[in-house]
């Protein structure tokens, strides 16, 4: 069912969530550019009251309603408490948000959300904002960004899996988990397993075994086993790798989100997408495939093994 046939009242979009530094604002800017190239009218809604400088033009900016510095100064709150207050203030002023969004009907929406994990795992304010948007006929998918550097540390990766699962269960939106900054993953260190092990969240017992080889984690093997059991029992968490500078990577994320929120593009957008994907290198998006990063990484591992064999 295409967006044009579902009636003018429906609006589609993405709620871009994730911890601080995961690349949410960069993602929103890159996705706005990518979607504009294939013909979508995109409106970015900044819901992060701590986001004072944005690389994109905001169609709606929460700073017009409330800002984190003002809340911290006037109420003597820290940054975490201040962010929670701002989200509760937004929840209490739905009429302001509704009026702003009503003027943008016909657009595809990107909601740039705050970088505080508590808002996605157990606090209700932002969840209630998403629920209210659904009542206004917004069809959103949550795009949960996680920095890919966590893959290089098995202990942190298990933590990320637990956080991602908790977020999926709490936010109650169609959900896409994304490993961001894939173009930088080689700078973070060596992966214990191939990239698809992390994106598909394959048999996590191997990860527990790898952790057990570390003296620090050896005493926590039983705890890690139980955490892994919870993750595998739900069988919900997987990741889409993302390099914002890679057209193919952006296309894969876009199509995963479109499938999740029910958006279906028309013939004109399909032709525009084909033209963009076949464009020559050196255009706005540098075509360096995420898969090439993995292949390069695997080749470097194989070369290291060969060198070790030659030294023996």
Give an overview in words.
This protein is α/β, with parallel strands linked by helices and 312 residues long. Helix content is 51%, strand content 12%. The protein contains 15 helices and 7 strands. A 7-stranded parallel β-sheet has the order 3-2-4-1-5-6-7, sandwiched between helices. Helix 7 (154-171) links the parallel strand 5 (138-147) and strand 6. Helix 7 (154-171) runs parallel beside helix 12 and helix 10 (205-212) runs antiparallel to helix 12. It is globular. Residues 1-7 and 280-290 have low confidence and may be disordered.
In short:
This protein has helices spanning 24-37, 68-75, 79-91, 94-102, 118-121, 125-135, 154-171, 185-188, 195-199, 205-212, 215-218, 221-234, 247-261, 267-277, 290-311, and strands at residues 11-17, 42-46, 60-61, 108-112, 138-147, 175-180, 240-241. With 312 residues, the chain is an alpha/beta fold. It has a seven-stranded parallel sheet, sandwiched between helices.
Question: Descriptors for this entry?
Answer:
alpha/beta, 312 residues, disordered N terminus, globular, seven-stranded parallel β-sheet, 15 helices, single chain, 7 strands
The residue ranges in which pLDDT falls below 50 over 5 or more consecutive positions are: 1-7, 280-290
Series of H and E elements: EHEEHHHEHHEHEHHHHHEHHH
Number of strands: 7
Count of separate DSSP helical elements: 15
Strand order, biggest sheet? 3-2-4-1-5-6-7
Taking Cα atoms only, what radius of gyration do you get, to the nearest Å?
Answer: 21 Å
| Percent range for β-strand residues | 5-15%
> So what's the overall shape?
globular
> Which whole number gives the mean pLDDT?
86
Roughly what percent helix?
40-55%
Q: Strand count, sense and closure of the main sheet?
A: 7 strands, parallel
Based on secondary structure, the structural category is alpha/beta
| Amino- and carboxy-terminal Cα gap | 62 Å
């Amino acid at each position: 069912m295409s967006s044009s046939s579902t009636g003018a009242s429906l609006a589609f979009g993405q709620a871009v969530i994730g911890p601080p530094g995961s690349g949410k604002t960069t993602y929103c800017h890159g996705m706005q550019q990518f979607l504009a190239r294939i013909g979508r009218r995109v409106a970015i809604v900044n819901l992060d009251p701590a986001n004072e400088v944005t690389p994109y033009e905001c169609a709606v900016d929460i700073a017009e309603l409330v800002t984190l510095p003002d809340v911290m100064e006037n109420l003597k709150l820290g940054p975490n408490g201040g962010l929670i207050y701002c989200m509760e203030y937004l929840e209490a002023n739905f009429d302001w948000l509704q009026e702003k969004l009503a003027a943008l009907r016909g657009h595809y929406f990107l909601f740039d959300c705050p970088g505080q994990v508590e808002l996605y795992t157990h606090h209700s304010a932002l969840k209630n904002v998403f629920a209210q948007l659904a009542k206004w006929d917004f069809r959103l998918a949550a795009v949960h960004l996680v920095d890919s550097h966590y893959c290089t540390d098995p202990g942190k990766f298990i933590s990320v899996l637990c956080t991602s699962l908790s977020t999926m269960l709490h936010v109650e939106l169609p959900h896409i988990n994304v490993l961001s900054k894939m173009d930088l993953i080689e700078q973070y260190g060596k992966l214990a397993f191939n990239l698809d092990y992390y994106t598909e969240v394959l048999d996590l017992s191997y990860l527990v075994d790898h952790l057990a080889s570390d003296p620090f984690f050896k005493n926590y093997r039983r705890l890690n086993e139980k955490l892994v059991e919870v993750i595998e029992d739900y069988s919900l968490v997987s990741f889409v790798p993302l390099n914002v500078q890679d057209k193919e990577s952006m296309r894969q994320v876009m199509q995963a989100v479109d499938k999740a929120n029910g958006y279906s593009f028309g013939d004109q957008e399909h032709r525009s997408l084909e033209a963009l994907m076949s464009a020559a290198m050196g255009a706005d998006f540098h075509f360096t495939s995420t898969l090439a990063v993995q292949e390069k990484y695997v080749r470097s591992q194989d070369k290291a093994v060969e060198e070790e064999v030659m030294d023996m």
